[in-house]
Amino acid sequence: MLNAGIIGVGRYVPEKVVKNTDLEKIMDTSDEWIRTRTGIEERRIAGDDMDTSDMAFEAAKNAIEHAGISPKEIDLILVATVTPDQPFPTVACMLQDRLGATNAAAMDISAACAGFMYGLATAQQFIVSGTYRYVLVVGVEKLSKITDWSDRNTAVLFGDGAGAAVVGPVSEGRGILAFDLGADGSGGKYLYQDRYIHMNGREVFKFAVRQMGESCIRVIEKAGLSKEDVDFLIPHQANIRIMESARQRLELPVEKMSKTVHKYGNTSAASIPISLVEELEAGKIKDDQVIVMVGFGGGLTWGAVLLRWGR
Ligand code: UT7
């Protein structure tokens, strides 16, 4: 049986920082409200010259370099996003061209904030079946272009950014050991986009608290492990209160959960890979550790991936 794991990562966030105090000037909100209800202090917003595919390209380039492979070795590109440059050609196809990944098939995945989890699980399946060797998975969003800046219920929450991972063969016992994906389409009405994002925050909050915890437990069981085996948790960075509920469910100490929500807000499909890169850079993730990543989002969707770090 082949094992598939993350062998290279990269991230990109726009330079422009928008602080809560900047938002106070354009809408009826306060730094105090945003911090206490969400944990967000600031977010990055991409300029007009930087669309979704541009951020994806920067993150992907870094991940490929980090993995030490050539773009021509990539067999499949999966881009998780709900904010593509346009419906088609996909961001994945745009990336395929810009990276020179001429041997890769390419498609976008639309599973909102759980998109990167759907991408990792799909990549793993292609690799363990022996179909493909290297799959590039990107989570990227330019949520600022679908944000209604006059709606304080949503505008304070989101940010732009990209994270990428190269998934490839790893040694036995390492890599992705289990995943748990799911959806509840009956909750689609609670979080959707027409021109802009619309959200029933309380309903999404309840769903998130329930599914984040339960999905973590399911993925641990599927891997044949127990809560005590988990070394580090990377939850989707939507709201510190939701993240905390997942951490408490796993009975992990605070230092074993990734937190980047204060710096970037909710970057949807990008939040988990951005956090992963930052934790690796900070030396918080080491070889052989058991990492659980878990996300939830519009659809409604959820997904968790458990992996043992290292090649
Ligand atoms: O990636 C998935 C994306 N979605 C999520 O993760 C969202 C999940 N939900 C949440 O994170 C929370 O529900 C929110 C942060 C969105 C809201 O927090 P809450 O504790 O559920 O607040 P609430 O919706 O119950 O609103 C409380 C009050 C309301 O005023 P009234 O009706 O009690 O007078 C809101 O109008 O806070 C008001 N409010 C605000 N006040 C200042 C809502 N947004 C703001 C704001 N600034 N930005």
Description:
The longest helix has 22 residues, at 201-222. The protein is α/β, with parallel strands linked by helices and 311 residues long. The chain is globular and about 55 Å long. It has helices spanning 20-24, 31-38, 52-67, 91-99, 115-128, 152-155, 201-222, 240-249, 261-264, 271-281; strands spanning 3-12, 17-19, 42-44, 76-80, 105-109, 135-142, 160-170, 175-183, 191-193, 197-199, 232-235, 290-297, 301-308. It contains ten helices and 13 strands. Helix 3 packs across helix 4 (91-99) and helix 7 packs parallel to helix 8 (240-249). Strand 9 and strand 10 (197-199) form a beta hairpin. The strands form four sheets. The protein has a five-stranded mixed beta sheet, with helices on both faces. The chain has a four-stranded mixed beta sheet with strand order 8-13-12-11, with helices on both faces. A two-stranded antiparallel ribbon has the order 2-3. The protein starts with a strand and ends with a strand. The protein folds into two domains: 3-170, Thiolase/Chalcone synthase (Peroxisomal Thiolase, Chain A, domain 1), CATH 3.40.47.10; 175-308, Peroxisomal Thiolase, Chain A, domain 1 (3-Layer(aba) Sandwich), CATH 3.40.47. Helix content is 33%, strand content 26%. It binds oxa(dethia)-CoA (UT7). Oxa(dethia)-CoA binds next to helix 2, helix 6 and helix 7.
